[in-house]
Design goal:
Layout: H1 7-19, H2 22-29, H3 33-47, E1 52-55, E2 58-61, H4 63-88, E3 95-101, H5 106-120, E4 124-130, H6 133-141, E5 147-151, E6 159-166, E7 170-174, H7 188-191, E8 196-199, H8 204-216, E9 224-226, H9 229-237, E10 242-245, E11 259-262, H10 267-270, E12 273-279, H11 286-298
Helix pairs in contact: 1-2, 1-3, 1-4, 2-3, 5-11
Length: 302
Amino acid sequence: MEHVLDRKRALCLLQIIETGTVRGAAEVLELDPSVVSRAVAKLEEDLGVALLERRGRGVVATDAGRLLALFARRQQDLSDTFMAEINNLKNAQRGHVELVFGEGFVDLVLESVLQGFLRKHPDVTYSIQVAGTDETVRHILEDLAHIGFAFQPPNDVRLRSHYSRVSPIRAHVRKDHPLARRRRALTLADLAPHQGAALAESFGVRKHVQAAELEEHITLKPMLVTNSFKVLWEFAAMGLGYILTPRSVPLKGPQFKQLVSLPLASPILNNSRIHVITRAGRPLSPVADSLLRHVVKAFPLI
């Protein structure tokens, strides 16, 4: 196995998977394409399974290729963690941290939580991926990100939640919308006759709303489905209908001053939570661990 996981050969495989072509990987690694091809061929020979298959003009990983790539990443993480702990044990001032969170967290996380850490650690580099809940969880489980921020992630033993807090889902409409005149918490049946917009099903917010629909025996039929929180909020600001989403930070822009947030009667929607997650059992580098501790400490203050 040590021979199979020769670091240079595994790196060739990882780069091919990331770029989609042997030539693209060769350019990144500054190697001749034939060298990259031979490296992967040797891996396939040693394992006795195909690691890549042709798809159009490029290549994609087989199941065995993805498994080997994931194992190689984790082995590299262990190596990187060891070296980072040796080199940065005292101050954790250098390193690289990969983060993933939904668009709804951008203002909340960047300005209120990360800004201070970034200013204090100018020699640390960061990668930030913006994704829905499903993609956020995938990035964490496949070790493509160290730390994730997710709305109502699945109850998975492979995930570790370091911090969570209630973030109720509310209905948001413009002040002149008929629903704004209601003086009680709204049921989903109250929303059903009106036009609405919803997030795509890959988002934790949409999954939570769907759970409430099952509980109340109501099926909402949004006129607009989007993967963008900005589009969602603009839909409500234009007076086109209601939206269902948490509101964790003040919205910027004069158009949003005409919006009102309306409470919902659903216990499910009132007990939704946001979480800060990592993969259970993954050893974080000192700088990633330092950022995680900063996040957990900062979140209760916002």
